[in-house]
Amino acid sequence: MDFKLIAVVAIALLASGCASPQPPVPAPGSAASKVMVMGPQKYIVVEAMRVARENGFMLVDVQLSNSAEKNKTLYYRFAWLGAEGFPVAEEEVWKSQVLYASQNRFIQGIAPTPKAVDFRLELKTP
Predict the structure, then answer these.
(1) Could you tell me which residues are beta bridge partners of residue 75?
(2) Distances, alpha carbon 18 to alpha carbons 15, 82, 103, in Å
(3) Residue 46: which residues within 8 A CB-CB, separation 6 or more?
(4) Which ranges of the sequence are coiled-coil (predicted)?
(5) Residues 39-71 pLDDT 10s
(6) Is this model's pTM higher than 0.90 or not?
(7) Interatomic CA distance for residues 65 and 67, integer angstroms
(8) In 3D, which of 24, 26, 33 has the Cα closest to residue 119?
């Protein structure tokens, strides 16, 4: 009976050691808090974000980089949010972008309505 208990404890310890650590939670208002990654995204990194208003419409400019030595296809869309944090426009369609090996590229978005005061960038790779 003692052997079974030791085996169960050993398996539990091994299983807990294999768990992958959770990434840190981004600070509210930071660029990382505005990005929602859907699925694994090993080599594509959001470098910088710039936000401005022009004629009452929110403009977003995002710098992405591909650290891989292969071309990567990325799908993205912006979700435009109001002051309460809820969407203020229809869901955008997914747009595709090819990031060549070791390339930096900018993607841009413009809110479809002046009611947008915040945004979320959704990213996914095939």
Answers:
(1) 96, 124
(2) 5, 41, 34
(3) 31, 32, 35, 62, 63, 64, 121, 123
(4) none
(5) 888 899 999 999 999 999 999 999 999 999 999
(6) no
(7) 6
(8) 33
Mean pLDDT calculated for residue range 72-100: 95
d(CA 90, CA 43): 30
pLDDT tens column, 22-33: 455 555 556 667
Looking at the predicted structure, is the pLDDT value of residue 1 above 60?
no
Helix (H) or strand (E) segment spanning residue 2: helix 2-18
Please check whether residue 99 is in contact with residue 106, taking contact to mean a CB–CB distance below 8 angstroms: no
Nearest to 126 by CA among 91, 92, 75: 75
Class assignment of domain 27-124?
Answer: mainly beta
Confidence of residue 2 (pLDDT cuts 50, 70, 90): low
What distance in Å separates the CA atoms of residue 88 and residue 98, rounded to the nearest whole number?
29
Tokens representing residue 62 in the block: 């995002």
Q: How far apart are CA 28 and CA 79, in angstroms?
A: 17
Which residue is listed with tokens 């990654």?
A: 37
Provide mean pLDDT across the span 4-19: 52
